[in-house]
Design a protein that fits this description.
This protein has a single domain (about 1-175), classed as Leucine Aminopeptidase, subunit E, domain 1. It has 5 helices and 7 strands. It has helices spanning about 40-45, 50-60, 95-115, 135-150, 165-175; strands at about 1-5, 10-15, 25-30, 70, 80-85, 120, 155-160. Strands 1-2-7-6-3-5-4 form a 7-stranded mixed beta sheet, with helices on both faces. Strand 6, helix 4 (about 135-150) and strand 7 form a beta-alpha-beta unit. Helix 3 (about 95-115) crosses helix 4 (about 135-150). It binds adenosine-5'-diphosphate. Adenosine-5'-diphosphate binds near residues 28, 42 and 166.
Length: about 180
């Protein structure tokens, strides 16, 4: 499913983000950039050990929640991996939405800084970090929408969703766009 927003196409796909061929993919990392399970583990496993070598060298202090840092794509078919840190869900009153929006925005800004025409996101924070899927989806798509309206965003933004349930949540929100 796709929607056009000005010059940008926002696309939803079901799949494994390590198979993407966009200019950059986003990793849902932890603040130590220490690797882990879920999409983080899948990306490091597929991209190879040079990614962790880069993050240790360039970002020894890790990455705060809501920010993002870039490495190259290692063995993947992408130029860059943007490692961002979404919030851990703690009930919703501790700034989780602002942090999640900031994670998306930081990656979109890196896409501009690195002149990426296309960028793929996973559903940040919706796995181990426990952010309720419908709320995470609303925040993700609304932040992408407002960024695209206000910036020279990449021409293609893909949300690569790991199963049909997550895809369904995204599709319901995207369908409500004019
Ligand atoms: P977080 O700690 O930010 O919650 P997770 O990796 O646990 O990160 O989950 C984030 C989302 O990524 C979840 O929706 C999960 O289903 C999804 N996911 C896990 N592996 C992959 C993958 N290989 N490609 C795309 N999405 C994935």
């Amino acid at each position: 499913m796709k929607r056009r927003l000005g010059n940008c196409i926002v696309e939803l796909a079901i799949g494994d983000i390590t198979a993407e061929q966009t200019d950059a993919i986003v990793n849902a990392a932890n603040s130590e950039l220490a690797g882990g399970g879920g999409v983080d583990g899948a990306i490091h496993a597929a991209a190879g050990p040079t990614i962790m070598q880069q993050t240790r060298k360039q970002y020894p202090d890790g990455c705060p929640t809501g920010s993002a840092v870039a490495t190259n794509g290692g063995l993947l078919n992408v130029k860059y991996i943007f490692h961002t840190v979404g919030p851990i869900w703690r009930g919703g009153r501790l700034g989780e939405e602002a942090d999640l929006r900031s994670a998306y925005r930081s990656c979109l800004q890196l896409a501009i800084d690195f002149q990426c025409e296309s960028l793929s996101f996973p559903a940040i924070s919706t796995g181990v970090y426990g952010y309720p899927l419908d709320l995470a989806t609303e925040a993700a798509l609304s932040e992408i929408q407002s960024f695209v309206k206000n910036n020279e965003a990449p021409q293609r933004i893909r949300c690569v969703l790991f199963n049909e349930g997550i895809y369904g949540a995204y599709a319901r929100v995207l369908e409500s766009w004019e």
